[in-house]
Write a structure and sequence with these properties.
about 90 residues; 4-stranded parallel β-sheet
């Protein structure tokens, strides 16, 4: 199936299990243009049609990575202290 929407989805963590699975599922559907975000795009050029440098620890890389994106997939592990629920 080919992209007919023209809408771009940026996927964070495409070299990991969750981001990679989401990228693969979206590629199989073929409904969106896809942009794979990775810290080392030269090493991972084959992930998607667009592969760009992005690092959540370097906020200056994010504006360009998300430019013109209709949506973003992002999954993060919470590293802070867990609060008890009332």
């Amino acid at each position: 199936m080919q992209d007919t929407s023209g809408k771009l989805i940026a996927v964070i963590g495409t070299t990991g299990q969750q981001g990679g699975s989401v990228l693969g599922a979206l590629q199989a559907k073929g409904q969106f243009k896809l942009r794979a975000l990775t810290r080392d795009p030269d090493k991972h050029r084959n992930l998607a049609e667009e592969v760009v440098a992005a690092d959540l620890n370097r906020p200056e890389t994010l504006e360009a990575a998300f430019k013109a994106a209709h949506g973003v997939f992002s999954s993060h592990q919470f590293l802070g202290k867990r609060r008890e629920r009332a």
